[in-house]
Design a protein that fits this description.
3 copies of one chain form a homotrimer. In chain A, 77% of the residues lie in helices and 2% in strands. Chains A and B meet through helix 1, strand 1, helix 2, helix 4 and helix 5 of A and helix 7 and strand 2 of B.
Chain lengths: 203, 203, 203
């Protein structure tokens, strides 16, 4: 139940942040929906294709499409306020990241995959939506560049894999989500990030 | 039979328009083929992967690959004329859009999916080729930005879903294609488009 | 055995060249891994999804993920030297291209596909990693623009298809790889490339 609520919170937050980001590129209403959809459901879709886990999450539950569409529509109306409430949305986004990644790892584990695939499945579910959003918006994906975003997604996935044989599904899930959420908030607050690799080829 | 002819017309038109568009980015001949292929067959391929509908259309019918390649090659020779005949090609493209989208919805319905998935399957089949073309050409996808392109693709899909239980497959297909085609032509003629959402984040 | 060694050489070379290329975009360490992964394993993954050939190569063999990660990490430390040893890496890359493409065609053939699909499977396996790298780095894919890269990948695939009924798997594979490798080296040495198609739409 709680997972389900958190999952919807995550989808709404990602759809809204995708829609607001799309505003920068002067897209039309369809563009807003498309980018919101890619941001909120793209990561899970790529994961499902990657793991041969059909039907895709939003095909099994088509009402997600409308949750995304309505969230995106509301976001275009309230963009000014969403942007001002940035801190609040960063918290929702951190929650979404932790929930999506842990769920992604759970799906990989339920299909019989091991640590590496669970971790990557978590990363793809949590972080690939943002990558798709930026690819479609024709900018360098932000998460390749800063903040412990994808790393935390991998961590949630890996942590769940380590914990669930000892603690059981529910407790492992809760801990993985909590850890990911707290780490993400700390990473934002203290601007923790990975070292940048900068290198210019000679010519 | 007529569907089949319209389908080829659509593929040829999309491949040619993809090839001509590629010329702007100074790609080589392989690049022309690649972009033409992505434009003409990319949408259908993404749809097939999304719906777990294997083999992909061009793997089941490899001769489509040559239809695309020959169309693209001809387009590089006749680019000047194709560009001057823009109006004629817009009509072919509108036809292709309507045919592809309706077919996409039919495939989703034949796999047992409902209204939402049929509509999105139509949209992906009809409009994703253009999105892939622009992603590979490193520009912001045009259809996120203007003209009722993707919306008409969704409409064809949704309309077919609504009509076929009452009118049967053939009539529903014909009507969906006709409606999509006429709407697209009207949208071009009267420059009808969705409202633009423009929003700059504060920093 | 030799194939296996060549395959690892190919993965290491592609991962390193991907990582060095990523340095240009000032990505963080995760970004380096991501781009290296897309470059080295992206082509094979797209091929597997396209052919419904599950599990994906790196899901069946998760240790590839670590081979890529370690190669990428080493590349960030040794970027200066890798860049100076450009000629050596071009040779490794040419080898990787020939090996990957021929393997890609073999997989398509083993699934019962014919000439066209084998050729495209070779092309996707050998060349799509570089396309994904450039799409994620937000630049126009290099291989759409110059050098007989993708064409050689198609050639390896097609050649293997032609030869294996007469010469058997092993000899056909060896010859396809050798031909691809030599052609790629010649194409680099003599700057052989396809004609460029340049066309500006009137407006």
């Amino acid at each position: 139940m709680i997972m389900s609520v958190l999952f919807y919170v995550g989808i709404v937050a990602e759809a809204m942040s995708g829609a607001v980001a799309a505003g920068r590129y002067k897209v039309d209403l369809f563009g807003v929906f498309f980018i919101a959809f890619a941001t909120a459901l793209g990561g899970g879709s790529i994961r499902d294709v990657m793991l041969d886990h059909y039907p895709l999450l939003w095909i099994a539950n088509p009402h997600y499409v409308y949750v995304v569409a309505i969230s995106a529509l509301i976001a275009t109306r309230l963009a000014y306020y969403i942007d001002r409430l940035e801190r609040f949305f960063l918290i929702l986004d951190a929650l979404g990241l932790a929930v999506f990644s842990t769920l992604g790892a759970k799906i990989a584990i339920s299909l019989g995959h091991g640590f590496t695939v669970a971790m990557i499945s978590g990363m793809v579910t949590g972080a690939f939506g943002g990558i798709l959003r930026d690819v479609f918006c024709n900018t360098l994906p932000l998460i390749l560049r800063k903040e412990l975003y994808a790393v935390i997604a991998m961590l949630c996935g890996g942590l769940h894999w380590f914990l669930y044989p000892y603690l059981g599904e529910d407790l492992a899930t809760t801990l993985a989500i909590l850890c990911g959420f707290v780490l993400r908030i700390l990473a934002i607050k203290y601007k923790i990030s990975l070292p940048i690799f900068s290198f210019e080829k000679h010519q």
